Amino acid sequence: MNMVPSSRAVAVHIAVFVCLLSISNFINGLQSDIDCLRAIKDTLEDPFGYVYPTWNFSDHYERFICTFKGIDCWHPDENRVLNIRLSYKVLKGEFPRGIENCSALTGLDLSGNMLYGDIPNNISNIIPVVTTLDLCSNNFSGEIPKSLANCTYLNALRLDNNQLTGQIPAELGLLLRIQISNVAGNHLTGPVPNFGNASTSIPPNSYANNAGLCGGPLPACPGPPRKTHNGDSRILSYIKRTIM
User: Fold this and answer.
1) In this structure, is residue 156 part of a structural domain?
2) Which residues form a coiled coil (predicted)?
C-alpha cells in the first residue's frame, strides 16, 4: 500500500494551512485593533459626542471598526487601523497609551483637543511605525521625550501650541526622514536640533514663541561665559600700582 501522499494532497494540505493561518492573523489583528480603539474610548472623554456615537463595539460584523468616525483602515478586508484622525473633537484626557495595540498605525492626529499630561517617555514603543504625529494645540506639558528619535519613519512631527518645557532633544536630529517639525508656542529652551539636510526646510516660525530657543535658523546660541581668575586680577592690579 502506497503511504506516500500525492502532490495534489500535499497542495491541499498547504492551502488549508495557509487559510487557517490567514484566519488566525485576521482574528488576532482585528482583536488587537479593537482593544486599541476601546482604550482610546476608555481614556478620552467625548463630552459633545462628536466621535463615540459611531464607535459601536457591540456589532462584530466584518470591517466594523473601519466605519468608526476618524478611523482609516489599511484595506476594507484587513481590519487593521492605518490612521487615527481625531482632530478638533474637544476630547479630554491624557495620552491614550492603549494605542500601542494598533500595531500597524502610521498616522496619529489628536490635534486641537483638550489633552494634558506628559507625552509618554516610551512613545516609540507605543507608535513605532508612525510617519505623521500631530499633537498640536493641546495642553501637553513636561519635556519632549527622547524616544521620539526611535520613531525612524517620522516625516511630520507637530507639537506646537502646548505647554512643553525643557530642551528639544538633540537626538531628534537622527530622524532622517523628517520634513515637518513644529514646536512653536511652548516654553522650550536651548539649541534646536540639527536635522541635517532637512534643517533648511524647517523655517524659523516652526520654533516661534519659545523665548529660550537658539541656533539653527534662529539667532546663534550664546557662548560659555568667560572665566576670570582672581590670581590674574591681583597681578594686574599690582602691575598698575607699580607703574603709577
Assistant:
1) yes
2) none
